[in-house]
Amino acid sequence: MQIFKCPFCGTRNETEFRYTGQVGKLRPEPASQIEEGEWAKYVHFTENVRGPSREIWTHMTCGEVFFMTRDSQTMRVLATEALRRDTQ
Amino acid sequence: MTGLRVSGYGKIDTSRTLRFRFDGNSYFGHPGDTVASALLACGVRVVNRSFKYHRPRGILGSWVEEPNAIVDLIVNARRTPNCRATTTSLLDGMELFSLNGYPNAACDRLALIDKFARFIPASFYYKTFIWPNWHIYEPSIRAMTGLGTASLDWQASFYAVQQNIDCDVLVVGGGAAGLAAAKSSAQAGKSVILVDDRDAFGGWLNEGNHTVENISSEAWIRKQIEALQVAGARMLLRTTAFGIYDHNLVTLNQVHDDGRQDTLHRVRARLVILATGAIERPLTFSGNDSPGVMCAQAAASYLHRYGVLVGKNIAVASNNTLTDEVSAAMRRAGAEVSCIDVSELDNVTYQHNDLKLQLRNGIRRSVDTVLMSGGFTPTVHLHCQAGGKLDWRDDILAFVPRSDLEDVWTIGAAAGEFNLARALESAFESASGRRTKLGDRSWHLQSAWPIPNSKGRQWIDFQNDVTLKDIELAARENMVSVEHLKRYTTLGMANDQGKTSNMPGLAAMAAITGKTIPETGTTTYRPPFVPIPLGSFAGTQSGELFAPIKRLSLENEHKASEAVFREYGGWLRPAWYGRGEAQQHVQREARIARTSAGLMDSSPLGKIEIFGPDAAKFVDFVYYNTMSTLKPGAIRYGFLLSETGVILDDGVLSRISENHFVVSCSSSHVESVTLALDIWRQDQFDADRVFILNSTAQWATLNVTGPRSKDIINSASLGFTVDDDALPHMNFVSFEGVRISRVSFTGDRSYEINVSSNEAGDYWKKLTNAGREYGACLLGLEALLILRAEKGLIVVGKDTDGETMPHDIGFPIPRQKKQKEYVGKRSLFTDEANRADRRTLVGLSVDGHPLATGSHVVQHQNSGYQSIGFVTSSYVSPNTGGPIAMAMLREGLRRIGDTVNVYHLGEIRTAVVCNACVLDKDWERLNA
Amino acid sequence: MTRHYSALNLIKEGLNNQLGWQPAFRSAKPKRSYDIVVIGGGGHGLATAYYLAKQHKISNVAVIERGWIGGGNTGRNTTVIRSNYFYPQSAALYELSLSLYEQLSRELNYNIMFSQRGMMVLAHSEAEMEIAARSVNAMQLNRVDAELLTRKEVHKLAPILNFSPKARFPIYGAVNQPRAGTARHDAVAWAYARAADHLGVDIIQNCEVLGFTRQGGKISGIATTQGEIDCERIGVAVAGSSSVLAELGGYQLPILTYSLQAFVSEPVKPIMNTIAFSPGAGTYFSQSDKGEIVFGGALDRIPSYAQRGNPPAQQSVIAGLLEMAPLLGQLRLLRQWAGAVDVTPDSSPIMGPSGVPGIYVNCGWGTGGFKAIPAGGTLFAHLLATDTHHPISQPFDVSRFKRGELIDEGAASGIAH
């Protein structure tokens, strides 16, 4: 049972969290000007980093979306950052 | 007779007698005995037959490392397969059965197999059974493998309790080092948990005569326990720490002897101290699997713990000086003990209940027991599971944990420290947060690894019958990596998990390949450290609690109305009302709902509120449809898509005010939709200007549908009335916290009354009473499904799947016209989305009995059929008077009017493609 | 010198102290160059090398394996082989594999113990029976053996399942594929390795790829821990590590790597003669020829290369097992492990050119790569040998994502009502 830290609620069991995506994927807009390869890249393609990377996570209990820097090989959590500056 | 009970030894209560049977014979033992100690005390030598060669086997060890003495047992009429005799407490009335011997261990018909052993070495089964077919041979092989026998009528009598514990220090192992570390940590003010898998603390202190800190070991142990109690430490016996997982979570399994299921503890500790000791290695020599050949430390354990002397005429072969104490103890207890030089030992044969030794110098001896020791292997499993690495120590010929983990430390014998004083020192240091460097050893050993290409049959893995020759064969076939060695020979894969076989096995491979042992390496350590009952993991996550079903606040009311419940989308809901045959009720309800009215509890319907200054912008983004043009008080039907353009959910959106909307979504998707919306909110919008609240559970939604629905509501004394001017279709009104929406899933005039869940009962009662006056019925979900199908309305996940886009089911406008950006927009214009032959929603008309849901619409292709669609919903409609069906069909709209073939389980019938809406095509009944 | 596997040779070598058996495969030292290099010594990579030599007569091939062959997902799965998929493209792919498996032992002269005792997917409600009918019909139309079983028929095949009236997931029926079954997973890797080696393929273990070498802007080979190897065509079949190689090669993939746990109980005498999967319980199980109950379920839904899972998923899968067959509660967990599986958005594999000329990929098999080893091998060999798709692998090209032409087998099983 891993434990993660929600910036809003604090340390909670892994079952309360959900991996939400890769950081840094900007949504290509407007649709009429986006080439299909670029759109597919945004929707489907991933870096899938082996090792430390910054990820987007959601704490489902409170709905808070936040960043977690995590190592996908050692499974260690390296940092947790709030999306918003004012979250305690 | 070999083993016997000696007085003056042992810590068990010999005044009470327990009776048990083994393979039909009666024996007795005492409380505190293990099955193994009792069998040994009764002189039982052969306890099993080996898995492959059916050789007679005796007890080799004394605890978890035991590979041979596995039995099925029956106690209190419950059978448990595959019990390790050395770790199973003896209980009165136990009935035990050996495995693998037909009919029993003493006398095995299949012993003949051993004569053909040369033809069935490791992995022989890969080299044959190819022609004609594996299936010919498989059944016989399956019948012969497997250890114990599972009972087909077994039922869990209890559920395993699961506990979560948090502490500063978890000490695994309550021997000298563990006790010392736990006591010191506790006295330093830390919250401590100390666990040991035995029924008493002390570890090896209980297997000899020791003095610790100048007092007897018994007294010293008592002192530590008292100090631990005073300091508030928690102590668990019969508890095995079997796994360590990410973020330092340790799982423990605690055994109870009173019939209760084991308890699983999940411990999160700041620091885990492993004092798990070491396991003795057997020696590898010809005939080392003979009954009566045991590990020396095991003999010491039997003597000092249980008062059992394993033999009277004992030969001791050891490569190390730690065995000296064991020999001395055996002598003191009255056995004749002779020491054999390991390098002199040529062969041991089991003959006529005795062991015949053959030494290299030609001497032959006859003994009843051989005690062997090849050194000790520190129990490093948890350290390795936690990701720690091992270092090889040539001085003790063992792998020890490297000090590379911040929060998992190893002390004592498990760290390669076999000197009591030094072990205690490092234990005390660990409590102060210091890791000590380990110093000189105080004992000696010589290398006594298996010697490749030596004569005779020398056992490495006793349970899986893997010999040194098998390892040579593996090497010959180039299966030289330790993982290949393991899988090829099955060494270490028996239920003793290689505790006595892994080291000799890899040492043998190292010798064969000319590598060092550290170069050869070990296989990966994984949980569980010992086999753990599956029930411990399941705990109470069983039956209803496995996947708790959501229940309506009006459940009792529905029950009182004779509702028959079924599970729909995670909710327990009335499928129909009334006893007896289902279809008559379903048809009745669907008919009455259109002639008078139906009352339905639609509370599971999702109600997700969106509010804030940017709420309108938000709904325009998350919805396929344009929603910001909705006026307050109005309702619009729409779709939520995923970024792949596929329909995630459908439902209506109500605008409460300028900045307040309510999303109504499918009952089964409430959590996933709420989550998806909240992620968009935080990702794409200013989260201070849009807010989301899932209020589904707060609101009960009571649906009244049908021509008399308005009359019923107006006569129910609800405190308000409705009329068409004030409340046209697809609008709502609010009255004192109640929201009355006119939305229709049936195509008839229909109202959804949203009240606070607490008041649902009151409203439901008033509505049902009023409804009775008009001949209305209670409407279950099955009838509702028919009503909406008559109108061609979809159910997401039933009529749609992971490919369906809004323009497939008759909603092309936003795709054509909506300028603003919305979720999934770009995906609606890919090549695939633009195809003319996409599956689209249609109806299928047939005569006679309804089509089977799941039938495929097919067209001819080559010599067979090709699917061009499938039936997604199919019913008998009491309102059209016949079967109706909905289907997703390629180029469906173009095919309207065509006759098509429909395939179901080999049968073909024809159907005519029509519009999905088969009743009231002009939708006049909405206002009827 | 005994090379051929047979009962006769077992007897011969039995009398010869097993001394005549030959290495199953050589421990080759890498040459400076090869025609084709296959990165990944799992089932797919080894099968590819075999079919390159066998079907395309290209044997100047090396298989480069970071650890020991078959040490990745091929050695970590629950050994199920089936072709009960919904879409025609998938049916063609997995049926090809199943039929190759059916005669693989004979073809490779190695008993992989493929035992076709069927697999059933249970249906726990009327709605699920409707989806089951849809699947069975789809399979039958795709010419795959499938039957829709009633509750009674399920009971006949697997009486230890939970037929109690109080079952949380009552059994209404099942989709059954009689030709599905299990095989010895390690044996599949070793069999292909031996056969490929005998045809001249070099199998190089303990050799990690550190990067791709380029010359004049084109891929010219690979750099490894055992030196550089030149070659113009490289096939990458490394499952969970696919993105790592992609990064080195300069292309992208739509995959995420997760840990998939698998479990084995202590062995008991035969009690279960088929494979059963319960979508409600989320678990499936079978009984191996050794008597162990082999089971698995959902992934640990957290991206991971660790090849180990954690207690929540472990608990769900085991609890699910006991819901399916409560009497298994009398057994103990003996072993657990995990693989690193590469999951695509549509639960269908990826095969084709990577986008970087010279590098071809075979990945994205997710939790279901073992059953596809023979097909993966022969199709990938075709691609590497001819630089064109075989018709069966064409739909699985990575370009399907930009066209929106996903083959969504996950969704085909139906979303809950």
Explain what you see:
The complex is a heterotrimer of chains A (88), B (928) and C (417). Chain A is mainly β. Chain A has a domain at 3-23 and 49-82: Folate-binding superfamily (Folate-binding fold, 2-Layer Sandwich). Chain A has 1 helix and 6 strands; from the N terminus they run E-E-E-H-E-E-E. In chain A, the strands form 2 sheets. Chain A has a 4-stranded antiparallel beta sheet, with no helix packed on it. In chain A, strand 5 (64-71) and strand 6 form a beta hairpin. The longest helix of chain A has 8 residues, at 36-43. The two termini of chain A are 25 Å apart. Chain B has 22 helices and 52 strands. Chain B folds into 6 domains: 4-107 and 282-373, 2Fe-2S iron-sulphur cluster binding domain, sarcosine oxidase, alpha subunit, N-terminal domain (Ubiquitin-like (UB roll), Roll); 162-279 and 377-431, FAD/NAD(P)-binding domain (3-Layer(bba) Sandwich), CATH 3.50.50.60; 449-520, Orthogonal Bundle (Arc Repressor Mutant, subunit A); 557-604 and 698-779, Probable tRNA modification gtpase trme, domain 1 (Gyrase A, domain 2, 2-Layer Sandwich); 608-694, 2-Layer Sandwich (Alpha-Beta Plaits), CATH 3.30.70.1400; 833-927, Elongation Factor Tu (Ef-tu), domain 3 (Beta Barrel). Chain B starts with a strand and ends in a 14-residue tail after the last strand. By secondary structure, chain C is α+β, with helices and mostly antiparallel strands. Chain C has 2 domains: 7-83 and 86-103 and 185-252 and 346-412, FAD/NAD(P)-binding domain (3-Layer(bba) Sandwich), CATH 3.50.50; 119-178 and 256-343, D-Amino Acid Oxidase, subunit A, domain 2 (D-Amino Acid Oxidase, Chain A, domain 2), CATH 3.30.9. Chain C has 12 helices and 20 strands. Chain C has helices at 7-14, 43-56, 88-102, 104-108, 126-141, 151-157, 185-198, 242-249, 311-324, 373-386, 400-403, 409-412, and strands spanning 36-39, 61-64, 80-81, 119-123, 147-150, 173-177, 181-182, 202-204, 209-215, 218-224, 227-230, 233-236, 256-265, 275-278, 283-287, 293-297, 300-303, 332-343, 350-353, 359-363. In chain C, strand 10 (218-224) and strand 11 form a beta hairpin. Chain C is globular. The termini of chain C are far apart. Chains in contact: A-B, A-C, B-C.
